[in-house]
Input
Amino acid sequence: MPVDIVVVGSCNLDLVVNVDNIPQVGQTVLGGDLKRIPGGKGANQAVAASRLGKSVAMVGRVGEDDNGKFLQSNLEDNGVNTEYLLKTPDIPTGVALISVQDDGDNAIVVSPGANGKLSPEDIAVASPIAGARVVLLQAEIPIETVVATARVAEGTVIWNPAPAPSESVPLELLDLVDVLIPNQTELELIGGNRKVDTLESISELAKTFPCSSTIVTLGERGAVVVASNEAVHIPAPTISPLDTTGAGDSFCAAIAVSLVEGKDLVEAAQWAVQVGAATTLVAGAQPSLPTSEEVLQRLENW
Output
């Protein structure tokens, strides 16, 4: 039976330290105790979509190491199908080094490890992709693998270009994408390093992309939905975030879940900004990912 959502992307072990301030170049700072948390943008989005009530399969790679076993077990504990989570000999599982400062902002360094070995050939044999209602992609795997997935997918293709691609994005990929979900920085990079700051300039740049629609995430300012050459600003709840790690991933998952449920993009974004905001009220990437009930509880209790 086809799953609702297939996530093709990364699995990382997040090594998290809380700090008063993220260090500058050449600076050493003291932090809190090291936390070992399951993460990776792909795995985060898979867990988030599963917690929000949909059937989810994860396509990716981990190493043949304890970190890989830990991440696979965590996905399975959260109801995610890991049949196509492949083992990669002689390459370690991906790791993310994360500093989180007092205001919730973070700085992240990712060592891709096995994620960098997920190939178009792997996609060719991952049978759930074609039949999924939504396929959710990020940018922590090779760009040629992202393109190969978008070619195979018959359902709605969502691409979250995070982290921001350092290379030019193939025009074919943007043609294949149904919903592009960048943040402001990623939007600027995909748009040829064109700087935008106002809602109007953000919307105008998003309209230049060949994909069917674009949702730009703007943190505390919410999001802008651009579709059919129209732009709609969706404000976010007013909160004081504890940790912004994972907020973008839960936003993307909420969009995917909403589209499976038949909502339009504006309705989907209205729900997703609430899910993203609720995520920031709990520390850690996957530990912070809420169920639908927890979204409302967290925002009401704040």
The two ends are 40 Å apart (CA to CA). The CA atoms of residues 71 and 146 lie 21 Å apart.
